[in-house]
Amino acid sequence: MHILRRDKKEEEEGGGNPFHNLEKTTVLQEARTFNETPINPRKCAHTLTKVLYLINQGEQIGTTEATEAFFAMTKLFQSKDATLRRLVYLGIKEMSKIAQDVIIVTSSLMKDMTGKEDQFRGPAIRALCSITDNTMLQSIERYMKQAIVDKNHAVSSAALVSSLHLSKGSHEVTKRWVNEAQEAVSNDNVMVQYHALGLLYHIRKHDKLAVTKLVAKFSKQSLKSPYAYCLLIRIASKLIEEEGAGSDSPMFEFIEGCLRHKSEIVIYEAAQAMVNMKETTAKELAPAVSVLQLFCSSPKPTLRFAAVRTLNKVAMKHPAAVTACNLDLENLITDQNRSIATLAITTLLKTGSESSVDRLMKQISSFMTEISDEFKIVVVQAIQSLCLKFPRKHSVMMNFLSQMLRDEGGFEYKKAIVDSVITIIEENPEAKEAGLAHLCEFIEDCEHAVLATRILHLLGREGPRTPTPSKYIRFIYNRVILENAAVRAAAVTALAKFGAHCEELLNSCIVLLLRCLLDTDDEVRDRATFYVDTLKEKQKALNSAYILNGLQVSVIGLERALHQYTLEPSEKPFDMKTVPLASQPITEQRVQAVREPGETTAPKATDKVAASRQDVYAEQLARIPEFANLGALFKSSTPVELTESETEYVVRCVKHTFPHYIVFQFDCTNTLNDQVLENASVHLEPSDGFEVIKYLPCPKLSYDTPGTTYTLVRMPDEATQVTGTFSCTLKFVVKDCDPNTGEPDEEGYEDEYVLEDVEASVADHVQKVMKPNFGASWEEVGPEFEVEDTYSLSTMKTLEEAVTNIIQCMGMQPCERSDKVPEGKNAHTLYLAGVYRGGHDALVRSKLAMSEAGITMQLTIRSTDQSVSEVLASAIS
Amino acid sequence: MDSGNLEPSLYTIKAIAILDNDGNRLLAKYYDDTFPTAKEQKQFEKNLFSKTQRANAEIIMFEGLTCVYKSNVDLFFYVVGSSLENELILASVLNALYETTNQILRRNVEKRVLLENMDTVFLAVDEICDGGIILDSDASSIVSKVAVRSDDIPLGEQTVAQQLTKKLEVLQSAKEQIKWSLLK
Predict the structure, then answer these.
(1) Which residues of A touch B56 (CB under 8 A)?
(2) Residue-level pLDDT at A6
(3) pLDDT for residue B98
(4) CB atoms within 10 A of CB A29
(5) pLDDT < 70 positions in chain A
(6) Which of A841, B50, B66, B110 is the most buried (most CB within 10 A)?
(7) Could you tell me which residues belong to the region Disordered (chain A) (predicted)?
(8) What Cα–Cα distance (Å) separates residue A659 from each residue in A221, A497, A836, A852, B21?
(9) Which residues of B touch A45 (CB under 8 A)?
């Protein structure tokens, strides 16, 4: 009785688990009993199970321990007990990776594999293959071939599957088993059929013709196994994708035919394959969509999930094709499985019309609290894309998003919402005020410093330009009182921006900033002191340069320049203008990333460009001694192709602009495998004033290995003369070579190849710069060197076209989102900002008006240098 | 990333797991290196369990994988595959796993009975999936492969105890009869 009670107590502790608290050493100790004779099958089976259980729990077993246990285990082959023997096979498989000399059991396993006990044969084959390496494969090959075509299907399956595992190591040997595999496909057991087809495809998959034949053969001779059908569908759709075959190909017909198969697995596989194909029309998809529609009302959650998920994919490409299922999808909104419900809603949001938006939003909010953050983000993204699709519905969406902001949620979720709100604000000016108000409310109680600083930055940029800027001040100042240092610093900057932009708020802002002078944090104090002093000057130019529009330089470049300066101390103060500018503002990329509809969180285009393209070029050029004293690299153009794409030699040109020089970088590729080019350089025929200083030839151009040659050109001294056309010729020494070995002949001859002309345009001298507050910069530069002219652009049809062309001509950055022309307007103003070579700020205001005669443009250019303004004006002609 | 098709292959299953109602692993097999270390595997199981223990929803997208699952009393059965895998195939494997276990445990699908028959369940999982390839998905065929002879499986304590009590009862009734006969 006493013992019983204790047992019971132990049982409770271990939750009735006899394997609870197993000690590795004790169990391995126990394993020594395997050596005893006679063998007690039940006891040994129990011990072996314990060992397996331990391994299964992820317990690490050392090599010596494992080897010891493994050898003890081999003794158990003496017992005839079926369960024990099967457990031994399992043990062999588990330990084959950790123990040494496992091949010792080969002969025992071979005996079982060819023995009379059918029950042992399959598992024995699988265990054998787990201990076999390539060197031993030869010796079992004959048995494997026999096993594949064995009439016992368990044996046959085991052999086929093991062959597939083995073929990872040695493809060559398994290749020889193709005839046996072929025979096994016609086996009447479903699994054997499936495994044989898998092996057959694996052997032949690099032979496209054979694969095509395979599909053709088995798509006619009807297979029994649904799995085999699925595999065949995948093979077929892969072929279709590779060949780009249309819906008229027999493969497509086969897949479409599978939609009428009796097994749901096959039907769904076929539908999924059709949806995933790249080039299908809505009409071709219709049958697939209709079977998916049927699945939507299935009682099985998995089937509903699969159907909705696939329909969601269809909705991305062909929203119209899914509209037929809208009714079924709406039934799924209330599905018990929240994943299904969410997928149904996001699909509906994609296919739905403007009128159904309100109703759907109501539906979502009813269960928003019940779903996981991951799905909430999906919903947020769906709402965002919807908001961009139907701008008029922004108020409903904004309310909804703000509601979500108030609810509980993790950082990723909140970030997704804030991102969406900001995107909507940027895309739709009407939504701006409501959006800002919601964000203000959000930062009142926001635990994520990153989001708070981001919103404060946005408020500083957008807030001053709203009709009533004063209402934001309170929210911002609250942050100064209540938050941690990082947020306080951001809030101080935002306050200063209000002061700089709105004169009527200037004094109040200074008062508030004065209070921050006693802050405990250095950064906050420094910022406040700096801003107060700047604001007190009351100079628009100062405000613009130091508060409203920050530094425009590339951070990596600045770091490098400062480092250089500290290495070579000089009398001259550090000149900011020598620092390369930050190229490619980040905003453009982000908007694009957001527009791509992604079912799950699409990997956002990395907001931080680690090292921009230009920094990479700067590094490369700095390493060439000939270019060391050219000064700082000002701008690198995008590559221009100087040849047709399929010619003997492919040449691309990148122009690098320095203060007084242009370096032409030619990336050349030799596409002829029987030639080697040596000493290749590109000769330029310069136009007036330009002077070729140096050629840096590429010593050798082998087949298909790109090489680079440089040409250095000095620009004319006349400041207004900056453009020109250069005709280019590639000169080189050709040596014939053996295509196979690449060994060139000794003798070569000179030859040349004419390339297309390269043009140095105004855009090469201008670096794009984003001015967040264009108006302030415009005042800052002032009208001293202003150039104004009126043009008529007769060749342009639309305002959009004109805007795109002007941006391209000038090579400057559009500001204030003025590159987007609102629909249905006849007039538009484009603001462009940039920095001219030598560090001169340049701003362009282009007023466009459309009439029946064409587009008229009034162009005003301001810069800090007269010649710069003139050059820019000459860009448009 | 979502639009691609799967490379045609027999390797379908990424993992099979049976957990108890605290999310502890009773059995877990991983067939590829999605989770290379035991630590990562256990973390994954833990996260998966916390997502699935309440909602009885049968299928979930989790950490970029498709997981189908089923629970009974204090056991949770999982089959995990790629997010591009045909969900119905995974479901059919889960069904095979559950049905097989059900038959092996003679309809007592609960933790205690499962642990008593751990060896047979190990064998069954081995027959369902080999290195990620579905070996068999028909429950009765799997059971016939593992369960050696039906009366051979658990001639465990339970049956012995039953026999004992039976004998005791017989003894008791004999005693009683003797008592009565004496009293007469």
Answers:
(1) 336
(2) 44
(3) 94
(4) 11
(5) 1-17, 370, 372, 550-552, 569, 576-613, 742, 877
(6) B66
(7) 1-22
(8) 74, 34, 10, 44, 72
(9) 119
B180 three-class SS: helix
Phi first, then psi: what are they for A259, rounded to 5°?
-65, -20
**Could you tell me the end-to-end alpha-carbon distance of chain A, in angstroms, rounded to an integer?**
107
Q: What is the mean pLDDT of each run of 10 residues along chain B (184 residues)?
A: 66 93 91 89 91 80 88 91 92 94 90 90 93 92 75 45 62 72 65
Do A49 and B118 lie within an 8 Å CB cutoff? yes
Arch. (CATH architecture) of B9-146 = 2-Layer Sandwich (3.30)
B87 touches A at CB < 8 Å: yes
Tokens of A513: 């900033």
List Cβ<8 Å contacts ≥24 apart for A528-532: A528/A492, A531/A492, A531/A493, A531/A495, A531/A496, A531/A499
Cβ–Cβ contact B161 with A under 8 A? no
Inter-chain touch B122–A90, beta carbons under 8 Å: yes
CB-based contact, B3 to chain A, within 8 Å: yes
Rg (CA), chain A: 37
The DSSP element (H or E) to which A433 belongs, if any, is helix A432-444
Question: In this structure, what are the phi and psi dihedrals at residue A381, rounded to the nearest 5 degrees?
Answer: -65, -40
Tally C-beta pairs within 8 A across A and B.
Answer: 161
> Which residues of B are less than 8 Å from A369 in CB distance?
none
Q: Which pLDDT score, from 0 to 100, does residue A16 have?
A: 55
What's residue A1's pLDDT? 42
Nearest-Cα residue of chain A relative to residue B52: A337
| Cα A160 from chain centroid (whole Å) | 38
Question: Are the C-beta atoms of residues A683 and A788 closer than 8 Å to each other?
Answer: no
pLDDT at res. A29: 85
Beta bridge partners of A713: A662, A692
Core vs surface per residue A565-589: b (16+ CB within 10 A) or e: eeeeeeeeeeeeebbbbbbebeeee
* B96 Cβ under 8 Å from any chain A Cβ: no
For chain B, residues classed under CATH 3.30.450.60 are 9-146
pLDDT at position A14, please?
Answer: 47
**Which of B7, B9, B10, B25 should be substituted to probe chain A, the one whose Cβ sees the most A Cβ atoms within 10 Å?**
B10
Interior angle at CA A635, CA A633 and CA A641, nearest 5: 120
Interface membership of B120 toward A (CB under 8 Å): yes
What is the value of pTM for the model shown?
A: 0.63
Rounded Cα–Cα distance for residues A493 and A850 (Å): 41
Q: Is A608 helix (H, G, I), strand (E, B) or coil?
A: coil
Minimum distance, in Å, between the CA of residue B178 and any CA atom of chain A: 28
User: What is the spatial distance between Cα A778 and Cα A786, in angstroms, rounded to a whole number?
Assistant: 11
Do residues A844 and A860 make contact, with C-beta atoms less than 8 angstroms apart?
Answer: yes
Tell if the CB–CB gap between A241 and B8 is shorter than 8 Å.
Answer: no
| pLDDT tens string A558-576 | 787 788 777 776 777 777 6
Are residues A352 and A363 in contact, defined by beta-carbon separation less than 8 angstroms? no
Q: How many residues are there in chain B?
A: 184
Give the integer Cα–Cα distance in Å for A318 and A532: 56
Pick A19's closest partner by Cβ from B6, B115, B146. Answer: B115
Task: Determine, for residues A56 and B87 on separate chains, whether the beta-carbon distance falls below 8 Å.
Answer: no
| Residue A483 DSSP one-character state | S
Among chain A residues, the shortest Cα distance to B93 is held by: A227
For residue B152, give the 3-state DSSP assignment: helix
